[in-house]
């Protein structure tokens, strides 16, 4: 789980988010569907009423103050007999790491009970209001509230019930990333990474660029820069030790590298962000 989490952490820098719809709706006997596979994910909060939702063959009856999650492309059947119509908040969204839906990688329960349902309701109300406003600032706010809802939903899930789909993260390219991360104390060549992945270097570079939006060399530069920033701001580790741990042959070369990437020397960065 740790190595996969680190891969996801790196890839989340490349996440794309789209909010397709946000609203409140009452669902009576006309609310029904039989085997639809929508191209978007949905999160909803039940305010009152009863109904049935079947996701990939798993049946549930969310009740008042429960949240539900319907992943994109899952087979969905839902209906209400009209005796107690649902009143619910909902939103349709896509959250992708490049071309992969996040909930194709992360599997979570389809229904949870938040400790504070009003917190979820408030987020929905703010998101719906921002979505309806139709201005540039409101578009940003609406996505922010949507992300907070996703975060709240996952926080409500028991940790043991959130799993990663190994086939989505344990790929040849990710094996190369794991190898590179394990050898940050030296210069790892693209040819080495390609060998671990089982590709010719030129083909590996093309695949890597397409999958992650950055070249292998650029990824290593980015990774070493981020680690250096974390250690400079979060520890009192000597700059010479940080330099050595990241595979630089000298502190002078490390300082030149860091200034090129951030516009500041390591000492300047530490003074600003750590007060040292």
The CATH fourth-level homologous superfamily of the largest domain: Regulatory protein AraC
Largest sheet: 6 strands, antiparallel
Approximately what portion of the residues adopt beta-strand conformation?
Answer: 15-25%
Mean pLDDT: 89
Amino- and carboxy-terminal Cα gap: 35 Å
Structural class of the secondary elements?
Answer: alpha+beta
Q: Helical stretch count? A: 12
- Reading off the top of the CATH hierarchy, the class of the largest domain is best stated as Mainly Beta
Report the order of strands and helices: HEEEEEEEEEHEEHHEHHHHHHHH
Tell me what the CATH architecture of the largest domain is: Sandwich
Share of helix among residues? 40-55%
Low confidence ranges = none
Shape: elongated
Rg computed from alpha carbons, rounded to a whole number of angstroms: 23 Å
Query: What is the third-level CATH name, the topology of the largest domain?
Result: Jelly Rolls
DSSP strand tally: 12
- Please tell me the total number of domains: 2
